[in-house]
Design goal:
By secondary structure, the chain is α/β, with parallel strands linked by helices. The protein has a single domain, classed as Rossmann fold (3-Layer(aba) Sandwich), CATH 3.40.50. 40% of the residues lie in helices and 15% in strands. α1 links the parallel β1 and β2. It starts with 6 loop residues before the first strand and ends with a helix.
Length: 213
Amino acid sequence: MYLTPQHILIAGATGLAGKHLLDRLLTEPTIARVLAPTRQPLAEHPRLENPQGPLAELLPRLSGPVDTAFCCIGSSAEQAGSQEAFRAIDHDLILAFGGRAREMGARHLLVISARCADPRSSRAYCQVKGEMEEGLKAQGWPQLTIARPTQLLGPRRELRLLDQLSDPLLRLTPGHYRAIDPCALARALWRLALEEEDGIRVVEAEELHRLGR
């Protein structure tokens, strides 16, 4: 069954996948309103509301109806500056966003996680992602969609030599290890948002590639 979202809340709208998803949302004629809190101003659009500032400070002040929420927040210990700062973003902030979206009336949350997410993992990154997923499940969402891509392709704020060298190889890697273009991930997320199927759905990398074609 398919249901067209009309009032959207999106976090991470300036990130690799988030900016493509935002562009997609603003071209959909059925969407009445997109609420996208960001630190830096976005290009104006008649259906876009863009409160500006740190997300943690903006969350309590967000208002208006929301039926679907997208969480495209993602970092790493390297980007955040420490393991503690990474957890504060990829666990605490995401759970706070999910809780506020539920309070605003959203019934479907779609979140970008990671292929390796596992709360019992010995890798801190994978453990935090897994604990974040478990925390969202505990919020009692009518519909929760967890996308688990591999590495996202494309330019990043921090120019990293390893990414420059690995991106061409990751495009060719077969199966569920193949990296995904952020535009394709955005297409997949939108298609998943149109599906009305109560409960928790975990979408692995191979299915994201298929949905993003």
